[in-house]
Amino acid sequence: MRAAVLTSQGDPNVLAIQEHYTKPQLSTDHGVLVKVKAIAISSADLMTRRGFTAGPVITPPKIIGSECIGIVEAVSKELERLDDQVMETLDGLHGAKYRVGDVVVGLMGGMGRSLDGCYAEYVALPPRCLSAPLTMLNATSLPMTSDSSPSFGLLAAIPGAFLAAHGILIKSLQVQSTDTLLVQGGSSAVGMAIASISKGLCGLNKIIGTTRSQDKVTKMKAAGFDTVVVLPREAIPSPAKELAGIVKEKGGELSGFTAIIDLIGATNVPVSLLCANLSGGSRVCMAGMLAGAYHFEEPFSPMGIVSVRTY
């Protein structure tokens, strides 16, 4: 099969197209063989390619890639024998049985790290990396593109970003209708997903997002942001207090925000902490690493950033 293989770690040139890479085999631990129709390239993939990972070190050669959509090509005998038993899949516990021809989403769960990923024609995965079969779709009933071909590419771009957005809003921050929500790095895929679902999901009246690019403002507002704060590119890195002041002033919340999602990462968390409403009840969730940093700069002291009278 064809595969984009990580030969070392660095810029995009370290990915080499190999025409005759060994096709994955089914096993007890990798029970569903998926013919990959489209992939989504996530920031986690980019970090893995560059050699920055929070988990086990990746040793090339390796097929990376953690988000895809495809069609079930084969199912192991072990999974076929499960029949009506409940199995743990990407989106919860299901009694669904995988069958050849099912459309499925593959996402995370070790893809591209502990497991070979989806930058290939085929990937063999355990159910924990897969959605339950998308029974409302099949290879002939997918939305069509202008050239009358199935729009797998569009579908591949949706699950990862929206699953992350839902988890951040509901499970992590538990956003309520009374919150003032700030999304740092709002022009990212996850940021745009948050903007598009947070009002309907959480009943919010206003969502503020930040970006470094004036060119992205129109698309961000179309996605659902009410106010977009464009931060100065020339001031990178800027003092945290200066950036926080800009965000609060232009975002129309001088007293700060009660729910803050930071998709930029460790280097920006001090700014997000300073954007919090310190009267109480504010939550800050770091849920991304767009700036490319996994770790906080030492020393990192949250109580040294916010008021010592704030608990």
Structural overview:
- This is Protein YIM1.
- Keywords: NADP, Oxidoreductase.
- Residues 29-129 form the Alcohol dehydrogenase-like N-terminal domain.
- GO terms for molecular function: NADPH binding; oxidoreductase activity, acting on NAD(P)H.
- InterPro entries: ADH-like_N (IPR013154), GroES-like_sf (IPR011032), NAD(P)-bd_dom_sf (IPR036291).
- There is one protein chain.
- This protein is α/β, with parallel strands linked by helices.
- It folds into two domains: 3-135, Quinone Oxidoreductase, Chain A, domain 1 (Alpha-Beta Complex); 159-304, Rossmann fold, CATH 3.40.50.
- It has nine helices and 14 strands.
- The protein has helices spanning 43-50, 77-80, 152-156, 159-172, 189-202, 217-223, 240-250, 269-274, 302-305, and strands at residues 3-6, 15-18, 32-39, 62-63, 67-75, 87-89, 92-94, 103-107, 122-125, 181-184, 207-211, 227-230, 259-262, 283-286.
- The strands form four sheets. Strands 12-11-10-13-14 form a five-stranded parallel beta sheet, sandwiched between helices. Strands 8-5-3-9 form a four-stranded antiparallel beta sheet.
- Helix 4 packs across helix 5 (189-202).
- It is globular and about 60 Å long.
- The protein starts with a strand and ends in a 6-residue tail after the last helix.
